[in-house]
Amino acid sequence: MYIEIKDACKNYVQDGKEFTALDHVSLDIEKGEFICLLGPSGCGKSTLLNALAGFEKVNSGSVKIDGREVTAPSINNITIFQNYGLLPWRNVQKNVELGLESKKVPKSERAAAAKKYLELVGLSGYEKRYPKQLSGGQQQRVAIARGLAVAPDIIFMDEPFGALDAITRMKLQEDILRISREEKKTIIFVTHDIEEAVFLADRIVVMMADPGRIKSVVKVPLGDHRDRTSENFLYVRDKIFELFNLKSDEYIEYYI
Amino acid sequence: MKKILSLKNVVVSIAILILIWQILFSVSSYNKALFPSPKMAFDALLEMIENGKLFENIKTSMYRFVVGYSISVVSAVVLGLILGRIPKVFQYVNPALQLLRPISPTAWMPFIVLLFGIGDVPAIVIIFIAAFFPVLLSTVSAVGNIDPIYLKVSKNFGIKQPALTWKVIFPAAFPQIANGVHLALGTAWIFLVAGEMVGAQSGLGYQIIDARNNIRADILLATILVIGVIGILLDSILKFIEKAIMRSWGGAE
Fold first, then answer.
1. How high is the pLDDT of residue A256?
2. Residue ranges of the domains in chain A?
3. Is the pLDDT of residue B31 over 90?
4. pLDDT in tens, B42-51
């Protein structure tokens, strides 16, 4: 298996209380899959992503990518953040070239790569603009181009469209779906938006909070071109809704 | 429009200042030699310009200022960038800094004169001390306040030292560093005069002492005005440089 998470546990101490972000989480992901980690806040989806991306370590269990234990962030696996993480003192082109500089790519090749990926995300002609001159959606596109430019194997996305308005978000969802097919990347995408997950994922990992755990993994057999209003789409969406409704049933039983 | 308005403000403000001076001169019963009028100070200014003394002293003072201030800013920023990244070390350095910081640079003066004698060095050292602490502390705090996402992104994209410092940390911390550098400029200019009054036989500070010794209050006041004007000019030059850097970095405010 390409990505292997086995029995991962992660505890935090917050205000003197122990908090279980990941409780014996196991998950396998194949190369080229688009996986959405879906769940309410506190379900450990971002913790799991950070553990995969190498920003945090699990307390026990193992997190392996391509057979190797993840210990630190790597330029082979790029994370896209909700607040973009662009460097405001660099223009768009220089931002996209950032990772290529540490890969010691010559200047002319860097410029060519920046041009190519900015075109891919629909931002040709914006090379000399600065991040603060762009809208949130455009900034996230630059961040995506910056990530793609270093030709990563995996792209981690941590609620990347969470700060955008609904229409921009849908456009970016369509684009990331297209890009994931064109570039054949493995994408692990964290979200709390059920429709977003159904629209994007090959498989949805439904997570529950307190303690953070995987409730179930739902396959989304909708193919490459997805229609938010189609019957199949609504069917999968309802299935996920049901999974979340189960949680309240559990509570009712508990309290009765 | 805004520029014209601010020019008007400057002219009126200074005119009022001179007017108050003139009134005080007219109503006071002090000896003219001890408390001269604006006109007398202006004549003294012309006299100093004509005999070349003024420019010579400005040149001497500026040399000391530029040397002391630049060495101070560069070393404080470099040290601050390092200490800001290793908070565990800074925890041990900080108490000593806090002890040294409130000591007026002039308090060091006798000691500095004993060590270095009279001349350029004491004034340079005073300026160095005056600018060093505010720049160092603002740099350390600026580095500590960097948005962690820049560091996360840098880690992800494999940016290692020293590139991390000059590509990410310094530009990210620059606005706050510039604040400290700017503040230190005013302080350093103030202490240049103090330094030259005690530890030098030339420069604008010495010119004040010299004027006092010769009971030339008109020269004294003219020198004070020159010091003020140069202070404003230095401030504007620095503001201009800061703005140019900010503009080249995407016009960040």
1. 47
2. 3-47+60-186+201-221
3. no
4. 999 999 999 9
**Which run of H or E residues covers position B158?**
none
Tell me whether A112 touches chain B (CB under 8 Å).
Answer: no
Give the other-Cβ count within 10 Å of B10's Cβ.
Answer: 11
Q: What is the pLDDT of residues A15-56, one digit of tens each?
A: 888 888 899 999 999 998 999 999 988 888 999 999 999 999
d(CA B112, CA B117): 7
* CATH number of B35-248, picked from 1.10.630.10, 1.10.3720.10, 3.60.10.10, 3.40.50.1470: 1.10.3720.10
For CA atoms B150, B155, B159, B165, give the dihedral sign: positive
Residue with tokens 């990941």: A22
Please give the C-alpha separations between residue A81 and each of A63, A138, A255, B160, in angstroms, as whole numbers. 21, 14, 39, 20
**pLDDT, mean over chain B:** 90
pLDDT for the residue A239: 87
Is any Cβ of chain A less than 8 angstroms from the Cβ of B177?
no
Burial annotation B31-48 (CB, 10 A radius, 16+ → b, else e): eeeebbbbebbbebbeeb
Cβ neighbours of B153 in A, within 8 Å: 81, 85, 87, 98
**Chain A residues near residue B155 by CB distance under 8 angstroms:** 55, 72-73
Other Cβ atoms closer than 10 A to B53 = 15
Say how far apart CA A144 and CA A117 lie, in whole Å. 9
- pTM of the full structure: 0.83
Q: Is the peptide bond before B162 cis (omega within 30 degrees of 0)?
A: yes
Give the closest of B150, B158, B252 to A85, CB-based: B150
Chain A to chain B Cβ contacts (< 8 Å): 62
What superfamily does domain A3-47+60-186+201-221 belong to in CATH?
A: P-loop containing nucleotide triphosphate hydrolases (3.40.50.300)
List, as own/partner pairs, every contact residues B42-49 make where C-beta atoms lie below 8 angstroms and the sequence separation is at least 24, other chains included: B42/B222, B43/B218, B44/B216, B44/B218, B44/B219, B44/B221, B44/B222, B45/B222, B45/B225, B45/B226, B47/B219, B48/B219, B48/B222, B48/B223
